[in-house]
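Q: Could you fold this chain for me?
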Amino acid sequence: MVDLCYIEDNPDIADTVKAYLEQRNFRVTICETLARARQSIEAHVPGLVLLDWNMPDGRGDSLCRWVRGNWKELPVIFLTVRGDSADIVSGFQNGADDYVVKPFELEVLYSRIRAVLRRTGNVAEQYLSCDDIAIDRNRRTVTRGSEELLLSTAEYQLLLYLMQHKGKTVTREKILEQVWDANGSYVNDNTLTVTMKRLRDKLHQPDCLKTVRSVGYRMEDTL
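A: Sure. Below is the predicted structure, expressed as structure tokens.
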């Protein structure tokens, strides 16, 4: 199932498109404003952004630039009314992957979405996030807000494992097994404690990284 962020302020259109796509194995999140879309994408990077050009709080090209500045491979399809060639040109200049002219047939929209995903794949698997902490798995980079953080290999692998299990409590034993033992590095329990302390310090003590006393750790969104 592919997650799709759909930015549309007309509830009738949005609900119709959402119902159609969800019957075709998409999970659709509707955002009525560009500000809400930014919050949604930061909290959970989708597999594709479907972006209406004219929104109550701005134009779609501003969001497209923001997406490209943070998630270079995240595909964007924008929707524009017939005849607005300037919007189409601006969209591609700002990094859009395709466009669909309104009004559109649902089958045409679905076909365009599938074509873009065939070219790009499900890039949501590349990006993991929790609150304002983000991992780009392809580049092996970690950021908090706009700051890129330098982590050791063990710190990165620990954070990655917790991110992959976001919302779940992971035991210390499981972490040691998956992060260290699986790589042939057999360490004691104190190594996890020390690595976790260093990771928290480098992440500036984030609220989303929680200790479950006598059990393990859990990452969950708090914003």
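A (continued): Residues 131-219 form a domain with the Arc Repressor Mutant, subunit A fold (CATH 1.10.10.10).
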